[in-house]
Design goal:
Number of helices: 15
Number of strands: 15
Order of helices and strands: HEHHEHEHEEEHEHEHEEHHEEHEEEHHHH
Low-confidence stretches: none
Radius of gyration: 22 Å
Number of domains: 2
CATH class of the largest domain: Alpha Beta
Structural class: alpha/beta
Shape: globular
Strand content: 5-15%
Helix content: 40-55%
Strand order of the largest sheet: 2-10-9-8-7-3-4
Length: 438
């Protein structure tokens, strides 16, 4: 016999859950400057349709031929999403069924490798995502790794040395793209040498997908990369999810089977309406949004350098993406600096730099401007953000002194730009799941 349940305590716990969510929403949306490079916000319309009946449904199988009944409308949306992604990225094949960028990476590698194959990728300290290495997806698939050489002067792959590694070690796959990604990797040059020894090139575009859509970053598919993977919630401001692309139809069939039944079952298809709307928004606003992201990143880097920060990449123009990378080893390290900034409602993440041995207190801080750009911030606001950061980390001010100024500043930037509002479509009948049930 189960023990009696105290209804009042359950109600209290439910109230606590609601209070935590409400506090989080208010804090992150209205009171903080979010500079996490891997995050973004959807438009009001995309968020509105995210809550839908599909969140509780199953849809195993290929587009248009699912193994469950009741999936006809989900199939329609899946096809729309795939078609929109092909259009945005000039791709012949796109698959939005992977539920994350990491799952997209696993699917891509599963499609083209066997256990024991060799993969060439950057070390994590040089910017690689964990899924590119043995600690993540590469290790899960029982693949071996060899490092792509890194040039700390150019903050990029050392092309001459990388060519030698590829020719001598003959990996089955070369992984390009990164989690710390200031400058485009030499895609075509790497692809040429990889193809010469029979290797394939996978470009992980998770961080720069929106910049590719906005035509401010090279399209890997147009630079000889065989497969492109990505997540859909960084510079591409959609719901959390993954996508895989190719222009090689011989690989498309392998990728299709790798996604299902290989590494996914259900696809979290409640995200499809939001993904479709975000893709349409990127067709309409993407170039304007991407250009402003890069301008903001470059301005923030310049402003931080002027205020005494060690900003990587100065001789190269600091960055060509949404990211700015700081060496804060002389300011207490990445963990301490990130914690101090969070006390003032400025959210960044600590990050390893080349030469770092452990991730617990690395030398760096990684900054991304894509979310604040979507809230309407431009170059002048980057100067203000640099001032806030300098007061705390350079001047040593108490974060509690800076926090109220951050909150007041943030109040001016609460409307999402470069996307659709609900009012834009208020004359179109839409049955939201909550209104349906109430």
């Amino acid at each position: 016999m189960s023990p009696s349940i105290d209804d009042s305590s359950l109600i209290d716990l439910t109230r606590k859950v609601l209070e935590i969510v409400s506090t989080h929403n208010r804090w992150r949306r209205l009171e903080t400057i979010n500079l996490i490079a891997s995050e973004n916000v959807m438009s009001p319309l995309a968020e509105y349709v995210y809550l839908n009946d599909m969140m509780g449904r199953y849809a195993e199988g290929p587009t248009g031929n699912k193994y469950y009944q009741g999936t006809k409308y989900m199939d329609m949306l899946e096809k729309i999403c795939n078609d929109l992604m092909c259009r945005l990225f000039n791709a012949k094949y796109a698959d939005v069924r992977p539920v994350s960028g990491t799952v997209a990476n696993i699917a891509a590698l599963y499609a083209i490798t066997e256990a024991g194959d060799l993969v060439a990728s950057l070390p994590i300290s040089a910017g690689a995502h964990i899924s590119h290495r043995k600690v993540g997806a590469v290790g899960v698939l029982r693949l071996r790794t060899v490092d792509l050489p890194w040039d700390p002067e150019t903050l990029n792959i050392d092309l001459d040395r990388a060519v030698k590694v590829i020719e001598e070690k003959k990996p089955k796959v070369v992984i390009l793209g990164a989690s710390v990604y200031l400058f485009p990797h030499p895609m075509k040059e790497i692809a040429d040498v990889a193809h010469s020894i029979g290797a394939l090139v996978v470009h992980d575009s998770a961080h720069v997908l929106g910049l590719i859509a906005g035509k401010v970053f090279p399209n890997p598919l147009e630079n000889e990369c065989d497969i492109m993977t990505a997540s859909t919630h960084k510079t591409f401001p959609g719901p959390q999810g993954g996508v895989v692309f190719t222009n090689r139809m011989d690989l498309a069939e392998k990728l299709d089977k790798a996604v299902f039944p290989g590494v996914t079952s259900n696809y979290h298809q409640h995200r499809y309406p939001s993904l479709a709307i975000t893709a349409i928004e990127m067709l309409k606003y993407g170039e304007e949004y991407a250009r402003q992201i890069v301008r903001n990143a470059q301005k923030l880097a310049e402003a931080l350098a002027e205020r005494g920060f060690k900003v990587l990449g100065e001789p190269l123009g600091y960055t060509r993406t949404h990211q700015v990378l700081l060496d804060v080893s002389k300011l207490g390290g990445g963990a301490k600096c990130a914690s101090l900034l969070e006390e003032a409602n400025i959210i960044v993440n600590k990050n390893m730099l080349p030469g770092d041995k452990a991730p617990d207190n690395p030398s760096g801080i990684r900054i991304g401007v894509q979310e604040m750009t979507r809230f309407g911030m431009k170059e002048n606001e980057m100067e203000t953000i640099a001032d806030f950061m300098a007061k705390i980390l350079i001047e040593g001010r108490d974060p509690a002194e800076v926090k109220p100024k951050v909150v007041e500043f943030r109040k001016e930037f609460t409307k999402i730009h470069y996307g659709f509002s609900i009012k834009d479509f208020e004359n179109i009948k839409y049955c939201n799941i909550i209104s349906l049930l109430e």
